[in-house]
Amino acid sequence: MAVKALYDYNFPSADRAELFGDDELVYVHWRGNLLFSAAGCFRAPKAMTFGDFRAAMVDAWAGSDPDYDATQVRDWQLFDEPLNADPNATLTELGIGHKALISFTT
User: Is the four-CA dihedral 102, 105, 54, 42 of positive or negative sign?
Assistant: First the structure.
């Protein structure tokens, strides 16, 4: 449903990319999980490797669910496209940009 302002709304977004410098916001969704029904949002350096991102942020976040088994994570996606989750590639090299949505299943 569209929202119509009753006045001229001209305010810059508070989470625009230029405010984050060398960092970016990355959304992570565990598809099919009932505990995490929405994506988590993480601030991460653009130059961080995917392996480090997963270990420091995704595994720590998802690990709060007792059903999480890091060895069973599969089917990574960037938005709705398959993602080759190379642990040695940086987020930028994988095409993961500011406010991107990555997801996985177990």
Answer: positive
The whole-angstrom separation of Cα 81 and Cα 38 is 19
pLDDT of residue 83: 97
- H or E element that contains 51: helix 50-53
Using alpha carbons, select from 66, 71, 76 the residue that is nearest to residue 105.
Answer: 76
Q: Where along the chain do its domains lie?
A: 24-105
Question: pLDDT class for 11, splitting at 50, 70, 90?
Answer: confident
Gyration radius from the chain CA atoms:
16
Tokens, residue 39: 């994506």
Q: Which residue has the tokens 């669910």?
A: 65
Predicted pLDDT at 3: 77
Tell me the CATH class for 24-105.
Answer: alpha beta
Q: What is the pTM of this model?
A: 0.89
